[in-house]
Design a protein that fits this description.
This protein has helices at about 15-25, 40-45, 50-65, 80-105, 165-170, 185-195, 215-230, 285, 325-335, 365-370, 385-390, 420-425, 425-430, 435-440, 450-460; strands spanning about 5-10, 30-35, 110-115, 115-120, 125, 135-145, 145-150, 160-165, 175-180, 200-205, 230-235, 235-245, 250-255, 260-265, 270, 275, 310, 350-355, 360-365, 375-380, 400-405, 410-415. By secondary structure, the chain is an alpha/beta fold. It has 3 domains: about 5-150 and about 275-345, FAD/NAD(P)-binding domain; about 160-275, 3-Layer(bba) Sandwich (FAD/NAD(P)-binding domain); about 355-460, 2-Layer Sandwich (Enolase-like, domain 1). The strands form 5 sheets. Strands 1, 2, 3, 4, 5, 6 and 17 form a 7-stranded mixed β-sheet that branches. It has a 5-stranded parallel β-sheet with strand order 8-15-9-10-11. A 5-stranded antiparallel β-sheet has the order 18-19-22-21-20. Strand 1, helix 1 and strand 2 form a beta-alpha-beta unit. Helix 3 runs antiparallel to helix 4 (about 80-105) and helix 3 runs parallel beside helix 6. The longest helix is centred in the first third of the chain and has 25 residues, at about 80-105. The protein is globular. The chain starts with a strand and ends in a 7-residue tail after the last helix.
Length: about 475
Amino acid sequence: MPNEFDLVVIGAGPGGYVAAIRAAQLGLKVACVDRRTSLGGTCLNVGCIPSKALLSASKKFADASNNLSEYGIEISSVNLNLKKMMAKKDSIVSELTKGVEFLLKKNNVTWITGKAKIKSPSEVEVISKGAKNVLLKTSKILIATGSESTPLPNLKFDEKRVVTSTGALELSEVPKHLVVVGGGYIGLEMGSIWARLGAKVTVVEFLDRIVPQMDVEIGRKFQRILKMQGIDFKLQTKVTQGEVSSSGVSLNIEPAGGGTSSNLKCDVVLVAIGRAPFIEDLGIEKLGINCDKKGFILIDGDFETSVPGIFAIGDCVPGPMLAHKAEEDGIAAVEIMAGQTGHVDYNLVPGVIYTHPEVASIGRTEEELKELGIPYSKGSFPFSANSRAKAVNETEGLVKILADAKTDKVLGVHIISPDAGTVIHECVTAMTYGASAEDIARTCHAHPTLNEAVKEAALAVDGRTIHI
């Protein structure tokens, strides 16, 4: 029967489509169901990819407007064509979604558009507008439905004045004042885009620091850099009420611990306080699939839920809510289904904030090591002493390496630098194979490169840097 499969994957984001492709490579007959008419999920359509396209474009605009004259490149005037910038972003997304479609076809994965509802561990109903519902028979089901933006209880999203990251990527004009509620990855990236294009940006954060999961030293340095770029911060502050009108948004804010309230007016407010699993109307409640208090689907070491035959990965299960983590989950899950072994170490999932400079981290922070009682040594090296950073006039930032005080095993790496998301990957590889700081220090690094700062930070763990 054409509607019988070995595996039905629900969700065609990075976790889902990668899992579907790998399962097909392993010989399984696979269907991938997604409610969108374009593949790639939130990440490709309204998340990671379009935001990086706008981050790149807005950086080019900012450089052309402010930073080229010192190189002898003199431009009389720079004009912003936002409509054209958005069109370029959309074309990049379109090319990549079509690329995913090609990959599914190449690997003989059946793509079905519609809303999936799990009827039993062996049945998935696909509900499509204007078409007859389709019942898929399957041996196994993989839930890869991702996540959605968490709203503030007193502000409803309209994607015009009160926006999620989706709306923030589609604004038709540069707001005079953008308020970002939430000082995490998404809010800071979106805030950076619009600040570069000319908006006044204010970040309102409930806690006493931005990106609270970040190493404190790195976080404080990062905030100082963003402030120098013109982004204002109101920490330990909460939004208690909001009123939307045709002309903008009026927010009531007050100290997080209570106190006198004040008013904050803006054209647009971006709510970026976190994301929650997107599992609504999936049918998991009736099946008795266990979730935690935050709504994440609970799984065992094989990614299987409390209902045998139903598995889950990515943003809808506990762990880092990152596209690359979802991909690794998906590959491990289907390899286990096929009788192979698979495992993902969530301590070795790198995190990157794609502002400028970028911030990248992997492993433990200093605060975590102190809390766990693990003796450690620390080495850091500033990019102000790195030749390549000097040559390209990008000297803000540092590399910080944390190593076990007894074994010298690298336990954490934290970087602020241009292209930090690329620079950190030698450390990802090193930590995956249990490398010591000494191993990194004795590895030959090309000159002049930004990665030489990694080598120097590794040398600093033992107190023997060369260039400072």
